[in-house]
Amino acid sequence: MKCVRTLAIETSCDETAAAVLEHPRRLLANVVSSQVPLHARYGGVVPEVASRGHQEVLWPVVSAALEQANLSLQEVDLVAVTAGPGLIGALMVGVSFAKGLAFGLGKPMVGVNHLVAHIAANLLSGDFVYPALALVVSGGHTDLVLVCGPTDYRLLGSTLDDAAGEAFDKVARLLGLGYPGGPAIERAAQDGHAHGVSLPMVHTPEPLDFSFSGLKTAVSALVTKAGAPTAADVAAAFQQRVVGLLVEKTKDALQRTQARSLLLAGGVAANRALRAALGELAAVRGLPFQCPPLALCTDNAAMVALAGDLLYHQGLRSGLDLTPRADLSNYRELVG
Ligand code: KG4
Ligand code: ZN
Questions:
Q1: Which residues are within 8 A (CB) of 275 and not within 5 positions of it... i.e. 6 or more apart?
Q2: DSSP assignments along 144-159, one per residue
Q3: Helices in the chain by DSSP H: which ranges?
Q4: Mean pLDDT across the chain, nearest whole number?
Q5: Which residues line ligand 1 (CB under 6 A)?
Q6: CA 228 to CA 125: how far, in whole Å?
Q7: Who contacts 41 (Cβ-Cβ below 8 Å, separation ≥6)?
Q8: What gap in Å lies between CA 34 and CA 159, rounded to an integer?
Q9: Whose CA is nearest to atom 7 of ligand 1?
């Protein structure tokens, strides 16, 4: 049987991305055009600027991916596209493009949930051992999800306020470290010492939920007072506390669910301290641990291709009525 080749498109936030995957995990192309320079001077993503940026570079990005894969458009068997959650104008650019492509080529299309795609980035290193516990930490989400099968996702807990990545971004701004904040804090933390910087403990009514806004407020109070610790020391303390919280909740979720493997996903999964700490947690419990290669942690289309391929082989198809949804936060949507 011919191996399905998926062309995937991702435009949910500030990366315009296209990828080509040959079933099940041969990545033929992965092109990401970052809009970071467009948004950096605002200290965050400006939705209208993002939509316009996608509009301008989507076709060049898709054709670069086809060229990298050495494929013509006609050789594509499936079109996969992120349909939410994300910025509505940004999503519309990708979804409209994908619809036109699928219709014009007469090929099937699968709309993909961006969060499911983040988890699917891990499929590059092998199939999942179900049930798998996934910690999804991105700029918009912090979720613990039990993945019981390719289309069976159960949300166990999520953030009550800021997402983990958002907290990194806001704290980096308070410390004057620039945007995006995650990599900037990680860099600064290397030269810092966490001890001596006191940050509050964080409690949530539900044990598997998260809360980060108290930490952000504490940092804000710290940096304005006389004799404030250095940005590097605060960065080190903040990173240590966030990683500690994420590990603690993940450990609790593993105990409660008896999951048989552990997955890490989302932009914050690029954080080396977090990768190491979760890897250690899995090792202590004797569980397989998967985390995406660094390049596939932050937004990309390879993860959309992996998710699209997975869902397509589960029999899922989207019609031309596929509508992007900014608030598609439920992992069960668009997966069956
Ligand atoms: O998954 P992603 O690219 O976009 C969303 O779907 O939101 O995640 C972006 C987030 C940003 O908040 C960024 O600061 C964070 O991931 N991030 C990191 C690191 N690299 C990116 N956070 C901590 N450490 C990093 N190395
Ligand atoms: Zn993302």
A1: 264, 269, 291
A2: EEEEEETTEEEEEEEB
A3: 36-39, 47-69, 88-105, 114-120, 164-174, 181-189, 213-224, 231-257, 272-284, 302-312
A4: 96
A5: 13, 138-140, 165-166, 168-169, 180-183, 186, 266-268, 270-271, 298-299
A6: 44
A7: none
A8: 26
A9: 139
Confidence band for 336, pLDDT divided at 50, 70 and 90? low
**Atom 16 of ligand 1 has which residue's CA nearest to it?**
267
Cis peptide, bond prior to residue 293, ω within 30 of zero: no
For the record, the structure tokens of 137 come out as: 């930490």
Residues 48-78 pLDDT 10s = 999 999 999 999 999 999 999 999 999 999 9
pLDDT in tens, 113-165: 999 999 999 999 999 999 999 999 999 999 999 999 999 999 999 999 999 99
Tokens of 133: 């516990």
CA distance 164 to 137: 6
- Position in ligand 1 atom list of the atom nearest CA 12: 6
Residues around ligand 2, an ion, CB closer than 5 A: 138, 299
